[in-house]
Amino acid sequence: MATVNSATATGIDYESFNVASNKAASNAEDIQNRFLKLLTTQLKTQDPSNPMDNAQMTSQMAQISTVSGLESVNASIKALSDNQSASQSLLATLMIGRYALIPGNEVSLNGGAAKAVVDFPQSASDAVVTIKNSAGVVVSEIKLGAQTAGQLTVGWDGKNAAGVQQPDGQYSISIKAVNGSVAVDAKILNPIKISSVAIDKGVSSLVLENGKRMSMSDVTQLI
Length: 223
What we know:
Layout: H1 6-10, H2 14-24, H3 28-45, H4 54-93, E1 99-103, E2 106-109, E3 114-120, E4 126-132, E5 138-143, E6 150-156, E7 169-179, E8 182-184, E9 187-200, E10 203-208, E11 213-215, E12 221-222
Antiparallel strand pairs: 1-9, 1-12, 2-7, 3-6, 3-9, 4-5, 4-7, 7-8, 9-10, 10-11
């Protein structure tokens, strides 16, 4: 009677199987083919006096089915991820040329005109916008008075309190709002043009006209 290795008689040598599979197999189909070949060889050469029982065979087949199933799941997830990345890239390109509202404390004066958006999370009984030059000197104060919750576009003609036109450039801007004696957490939102889209490892980001990048999830509003 032919003798067989004890590991073969009791089950497939998974250590050897895994080493061979990792070296030569690149997907679940290759692994499954190798598994079936080993299983067939085992059945042909097993000791008739000590055959592999049905439960053991079922267990081994279940394991290889799990490997195959996981491979299919991974392929589906990758396809879904690729489709999502493509959709995000397409959506990002549609934003080129639009203006995004982003939180900031700067405003650009161009051609003697500047705009900013103030976001009021709640009503305010009084609010004042302060604009300073690069030296930190106050050049204008815009009194907004009472405001309801929501967004308000504020324009500045570039003139200081004495009516003198200020040079184009970047200015700092801030908002102070209160509701009675309680401070209101109002925020300045700056409109900035989206000039292009950058894609890094499948992730799209928006390139702004000032050279900075921002995630699409950081865009609160397009105008």
